[in-house]
Backbone:
């Protein structure tokens, strides 16, 4: 008798879903293996992963300065060798020294303070101040292995039972639905308005809040993803102010997913942190609880594999802060390379530093290329029969809407799957392109979408566009009424 | 009105305790700040952290070969430069190349497979096979940010409610009590027998198992820490066999904390993994579920800050494996440097490699020094009035028992704390030495202990011994009846 079966595990685990690494991706990995063992077995020779915000897996190069500093901190004994000056830039050597001096005993192999190394938190707080123009306190920073564990920590803190609700945008990044399910809470959906470029209407927030209350659910927090994932919209400052006021009035913790803060592609929009917006409205520590999540995985750096990130926790009393600290301490600390990288991302080279020019060129190259790719893919989607796609103002994704013929919907039913899944599966089998079906993010009932990253390198984009266009034509023809 | 108060957070978070970073450590940090701002304010000039298994924070140096490989993987563009051969050993360069070739796109900055990079799991599985003499499957390996997240993942999988019990040794490493509390289960204690060198008696397991059942609790898993933390005992193979049989008979998942597998200091004991023991008894995949936890933080490597580790998951059906994979995928993947380090630890340099001699010398130097330190501290404790200390056969800790005078127990009561906490706090204030009170690990009612690591560098040990001895004398005198 097996000690563990599906009937005897935690039902919350069963309930949790995580589409970004779900069925389609598992299928893609199988097809990739097939291509390796039986070359030529498919009408394509590689898998194009457009499912996940993982830039370096698709060829984006890391920022040289950041990697120089990391390598030197990993192996400090080469800092004083003459060959090192031939291999590393002078400011990377200097920065590595500074960072090592901030680490007790210069020990990058030691557990740190559970919130992260104090000197690195100082650098991050200074970076936030420079960004926002309002003070930031290093004691508010909790460094984490990417942003995900920080999100889990807040859900774990806030959710007592299924009677506690977390307001989440629909569509949403499935980390939120997964984390709420794992912690046994209730996701209270608020719908972004596709017709107005995925607008976030406060009237919708109010409606869903009231609806949840009427069902006996206590809304505890509001998740906002800005720039949006999977939607790519960037909130206007006025809209942010309304959201802040709503949270303040209803006593909601504002959980601000701001990991795409460097990814804004349109001149008419600018990133404003929610903490900055709250402070600019005159609201301080006592008025509103705001948690801001940031990660080294996104932006122009895209260092997903390093698992660095932080949350800035404001507007909680010391007794609650102590509980958050305790949660952080149970896992001892986040990885030190990720901590170092988080500090570098928030305090990159400055004008006059030896690396500044090459750093700037690398950064601008990546961001301007992302902008071009977003536009090319957006245009390509809008040319497809039955597909409409909002502008990617920011982040790394497009989330086009697809009106599928009734016959395709029936075929999906017969194949015991959802129509969006059916489309994505067919696309993968025919072209090797991997999209994530909209079902994984949530969508208005009866509408179908998929998420596509803008991350394939520019030389691959024409192939994505032509393979997709060709597939779409034949798919629509096959299922024409 | 604050949206969050102690009355409205998750009560499981409130209940959770983590003594290794608890009150005494917070006090130590405050005293350290005081020493910095007011030098000479205390009768000592530094804090001696003996509270946590964090070797490099106390001056242990990392293994050079490991750090060389990590640095090269962080900044692969120097691999082909001529200066690099002057700075790095040839086999580290070669190993870095091999590892990079195993990473799709050589991208150390990309999210990996959620279980970890396949090539690294291959190396780990090969290392386990070499250690145990039984096959290991890379698909059974889940790489994690240190061992802690792996433990949480298993608790999350197994615990449905407070009716699910996890058998844990007392004293235990408080990660287990914390994780069980956070996931809402019940810790079913089984007591290690201090009189027989912290022996693990199967009769005690049976008794506590039956007692839990009689209270309506379903025991789901048995935690064994071998070598022991905080107790330092190493289980005899025969004893392990009895434990395996008990788990098999009662349908318990065997959660084997084997992070101290390299830390055995006595010739009469040897580390055997529980999987090896089960296989040597003829039990296969279908007979017993065994999860083995390993970490880069312990052993002779002590790379706590890198947050590398893995669990080897055997004896679960594919449907359960899928659920574990899903849990891993919600956090995307563990950090790549930690993954690389985990593979290095399980496949270090071999005889004939350029680095082998220096690697061996570093490893043996650390392990033989740990052995000497363990003996010196053990002897010192046993010389203290009212203190008895079992032998540290392995791991990094001693857990002496202290019989406190009634007057000290009353003084603790008056100070609203436990006697062991009172003793540790007094010790810290008088000497700067940080121990963790036994209460944090659990102890037989009415007995008092503390945990002391064997990690201060050898030149500091005489100071620890003399300060402790002097303090203890005056403490016992002060509270003599």
Residues:
């Amino acid at each position: 008798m097996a000690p563990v079966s599906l009937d005897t595990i935690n039902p919350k685990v069963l309930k949790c879903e995580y589409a970004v690494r779900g069925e389609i991706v598992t299928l893609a990995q199988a097809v990739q293996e097939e291509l390796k063992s039986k070359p030529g077995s498919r009408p394509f020779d590689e898998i194009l992963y457009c499912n996940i915000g993982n830039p370096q897996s698709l060829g984006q190069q890391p920022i040289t300065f950041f990697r120089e500093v990391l390598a030197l901190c990993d192996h400090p004994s080469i800092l004083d060798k003459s060959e090192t000056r031939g291999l590393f830039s002078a400011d990377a050597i200097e920065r590595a020294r500074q960072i090592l001096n901030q680490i007790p005993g210069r020990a990058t192999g030691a557990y740190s303070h559970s919130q992260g190394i104090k000197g690195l938190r100082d650098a991050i707080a200074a970076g936030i101040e420079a960004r926002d123009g309002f003070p930031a306190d290093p004691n508010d920073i909790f460094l984490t292995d990417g942003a995900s564990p920080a999100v889990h920590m807040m859900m774990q803190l806030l959710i007592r039972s299924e009677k506690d609700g977390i307001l989440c945008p629909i569509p949403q990044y499935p980390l939120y639905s997964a984390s709420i399910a794992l912690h046994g809470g209730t996701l209270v959906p608020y719908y972004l308005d596709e017709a107005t470029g995925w607008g976030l209407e406060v009237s919708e927030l109010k409606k869903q809040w009231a609806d949840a209350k009427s069902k006996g659910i206590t809304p505890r927090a509001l998740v906002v993803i800005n720039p949006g994932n999977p939607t790519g919209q960037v909130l206007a400052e006025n809209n942010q102010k309304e959201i802040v006021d709503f949270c303040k009035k209803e006593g909601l913790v504002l959980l601000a997913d701001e990991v795409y803060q460097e990814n804004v592609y349109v001149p008419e929009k600018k990133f404003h942190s929610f903490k900055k917006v709250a402070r600019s409205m005159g609201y301080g520590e006592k008025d509103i609880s705001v948690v801001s999540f940031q990660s080294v995985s996104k932006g122009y750096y895209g260092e997903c594999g390093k698992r660095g990130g932080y949350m800035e926790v404001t507007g909680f009393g010391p007794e609650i802060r102590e509980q958050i600290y305790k949660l952080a301490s149970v896992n001892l600390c986040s990885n030190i390379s990720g901590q170092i990288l988080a500090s570098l991302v928030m305090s990159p080279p400055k004008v006059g530093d030896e690396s500044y020019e090459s750093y700037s060129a690398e950064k601008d190259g990546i961001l301007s290329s992302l902008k071009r790719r977003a536009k090319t893919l957006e245009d390509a989607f809008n040319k497809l029969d039955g597909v409409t796609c909002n502008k990617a103002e920011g982040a790394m994704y497009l989330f086009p809407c697809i009106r599928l013929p009734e016959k395709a919907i029936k075929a999906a039913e017969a194949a015991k799957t959802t129509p969006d899944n059916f489309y994505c599966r067919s696309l993968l089998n025919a072209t090797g392109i991997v999209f994530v079906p909209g079902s994984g993010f949530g969508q208005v009932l009866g509408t179908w979408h998929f998420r596509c990253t803008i991350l394939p390198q520019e030389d691959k984009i024409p192939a994505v566009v032509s393979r997709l266009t060709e597939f779409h034509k034949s798919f629509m023809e096959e299922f024409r009424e």
